[in-house]
Amino acid sequence: KRLNELLDQGKTPHGDLFHAFFSGDEKQVEDTIAEELKGAPPSQVKTMRRLLNKRNEVMAERILRFTKAHPKRRHLFAFGVAHFIGKESVTSALTSAGCEVTRLTHK
Questions:
Q1: Which residue from 47, 61, 81, 98 has the least number of CB within 10 angstroms?
Q2: Residue closest to 99 by CA, chosen among 44, 60, 69
Q3: Can you say how many angstroms the Cα of residue 5 is from the centroid of all Cα atoms in its chain?
Q4: What percent of the chain has a predicted confidence (pLDDT) above 70?
């Protein structure tokens, strides 16, 4: 139902999410994700959060290993929007580990 509403409005399913992220509006990203999860069973939301957080942890560990193995190189990593926001994000884990993380935005 929601997909049809978005398409009727000329929008893509994740267009609002990407726009909010690339404009630097993390609050809007979180609100958009919450809206997309609205109506999902609480157990599903909890499981999705757990999986997301675990993936964030694994990705951050891989990035740390890679950057330590190649310290003289510049690195660029790209993930889905949800992995970049929140206190358990890849970005937060890397910052906590002492990495400098620069977020690129587009306005």
A1: 98
A2: 60
A3: 24
A4: 87
Nearest C-alpha neighbor of 75 from the set 60, 87, 58? 60
pLDDT value for 11: 67
pLDDT at position 40 is 86
> Which tokens sit at 33?
């994700």
Two tokens, residue 76: 């660029």
pTM of the model: 0.72
Return d(Cα 11, Cα 2) in angstroms, integer. 11
Specify the amino acid at residue 105: T
The greatest distance separating any two alpha carbons of the chain, rounded to the nearest whole angstrom, comes to 50
SS3 at position 95: helix
Encoded amino acid at 65, one letter: R
CB burial class (10 A; 0-12, 13-18, 19+) of residue 72? exposed
